[in-house]
């Protein structure tokens, strides 16, 4: 046998070795990714108090950033409003509003606890009456199941958490203050960090896109939430129900939680009506009217006002809501959509992570508006 024939008949061990190394590298990459995700999840849970306060501060700061820029360009006669003065005014307004809201919530804790415990038995009896429509056995089973839940302990624990509200508010105000202080030097720091002016400008556009979309979402959501709260107040007053003000405020707050919040608010309203109204048909009518209001405002008016600014997948919203609710609790549910929008925009500008952005977007076009803005900016620069 010639050496040439031996070459052709021998197995190609080098290719097998290369394939083994590639598989080993992929396995190592996946393993390191799992470890990194576990560490990030651990930090998100352990440092949730600080991180939640920081995210809220960033959202509040972003809401006022454009307004500060606009005010700093105004002139009152010969006197110009400086950026520093506009920032101080915005910071003072945020601090006063947050401290006032915290004081109101803390002062109402005892009232809420007393009212909840007073109406617990009536609520259980009302739910049991609904179960009785199916069978007497269902009424007894439902009432026994609900009474096995220690409602008083849950309410007391929730009231105890209100004491942390003042600490969280103080931390949020401190974070907002430092963000305002760093605002003037942000672009300079970004350029020095990246050592590339063009890259820094690109990152700045990404941040601006995130701020613009989140601000649009929050402004529209606030308007729809106000309309929903007012509608609930008018509805309860029309039927002569008590707690119209607290239920309107609760509806306003819960409306910030996508999909789930409006359902919870409607069910709570129906339960309050069932406790106070002797006729189940009237309570059902209130439930139907409230459901129609929620549907019109949440499923028709809200998407129409949002337009193409949000462009996130409904399934992605539910996943984000579940994840951040599990990690950060109720605050995480309120922050789920802004965080999801930020992740989608960032991933859309990273080639390796772009599939994540495509999955999170509604039509698979997460950066459509960003591309339009980029083209418009390039045209303006070319015209100049």
Strand arrangement across the biggest beta sheet: 1-2
* SS class: mainly alpha
Cα-atom radius of gyration: 28 Å
Low-confidence stretches: none
Q: What is the molecular shape? A: globular
**Sheet of most strands:** 2 strands, antiparallel
Oligomer state of the chains in this structure:
single chain
- Listing every helix as H and every strand as E from the N terminus to the C terminus, the arrangement reads HHHEEHHHHHHHHHHHHHH
How much of the polypeptide forms β-strand, as a percent range?
A: under 5%
Name the helicity range: over 70%
End-to-end separation: 77 Å
Question: How many DSSP H or I helices?
Answer: 17
Instruction: Look at the structure and give the mean pLDDT.
Output: 79
Overview of this protein structure:
There is one protein chain. With 384 residues, this protein is mostly helical. Among the domains are: 207-309, no CATH class; 311-384, no CATH class. Helix content is 84%, strand content 1%. It has helices at residues 3-9, 13-46, 48-71, 83-107, 109-118, 120-132, 136-147, 151-161, 163-183, 186-194, 197-238, 244-254, 260-276, 280-306, 314-348, 354-360, 368-383, and strands at residues 75-76, 79-80. A two-stranded antiparallel sheet has the order 1-2. Strand 1 (75-76) and strand 2 form a beta hairpin. Helix 3 (48-71) crosses helix 9 (163-183) and helix 13 (260-276) runs antiparallel to helix 14 (280-306). It is globular. The mean pLDDT is 79.
């Amino acid at each position: 046998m010639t050496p040439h024939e031996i070459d052709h008949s021998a197995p190609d061990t080098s290719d097998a070795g290369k394939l083994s190394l590639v598989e080993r590298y992929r396995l190592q990459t996946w393993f390191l990714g799992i470890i990194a995700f576990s560490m990030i999840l651990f930090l998100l849970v352990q440092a949730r108090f600080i991180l939640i306060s920081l995210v809220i501060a960033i959202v509040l700061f972003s809401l006022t950033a454009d307004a500060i820029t606009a005010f700093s360009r105004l002139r009152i006669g010969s006197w110009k409003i400086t950026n520093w003065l506009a920032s101080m005014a915005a910071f003072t307004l945020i601090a006063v509003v947050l401290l006032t809201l915290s004081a109101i919530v803390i002062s109402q804790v005892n009232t809420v606890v007393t009212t909840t415990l007073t109406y617990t038995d009536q609520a259980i009896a009302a739910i049991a009456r609904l179960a009785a429509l199916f069978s007497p056995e269902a009424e007894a089973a439902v009432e026994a199941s609900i009474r096995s839940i220690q409602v008083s302990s849950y309410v007391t624990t929730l009231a105890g958490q209100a004491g942390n509200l003042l600490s969280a508010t103080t931390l949020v105000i401190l974070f907002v203050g430092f963000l305002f202080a760093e605002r003037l030097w942000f672009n300079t720091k970004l350029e020095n960090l990246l050592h590339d002016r063009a890259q820094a400008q690109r990152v700045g556009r990404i941040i601006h896109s995130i701020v613009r979309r989140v601000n649009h979402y929050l402004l529209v959501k606030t308007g729809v939430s106000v309309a929903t709260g007012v509608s609930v107040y008018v509805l309860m007053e029309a039927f002569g129900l008590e707690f119209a003000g607290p239920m309107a405020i609760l509806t306003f707050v819960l409306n910030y939680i996508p999909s789930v919040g409006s359902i919870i608010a409607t069910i709570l309203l129906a339960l309050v009506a069932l406790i106070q109204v002797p006729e189940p048909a009237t309570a059902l009518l209130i439930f139907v009217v409230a459901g129609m209001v929620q549907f019109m405002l949440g499923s028709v008016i809200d998407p129409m006002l949002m337009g193409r600014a949000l462009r996130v997948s409904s399934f992605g919203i539910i996943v984000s809501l579940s994840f951040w609710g599990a990690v950060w609790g109720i605050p995480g549910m309120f922050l789920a959509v802004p965080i999801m929008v930020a992740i989608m925009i960032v991933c859309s500008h990273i080639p390796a992570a772009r599939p994540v952005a495509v999955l999170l977007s509604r039509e698979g076009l997460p950066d459509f508006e960003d591309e339009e803005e980029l083209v418009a900016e390039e045209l303006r620069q070319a015209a100049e």
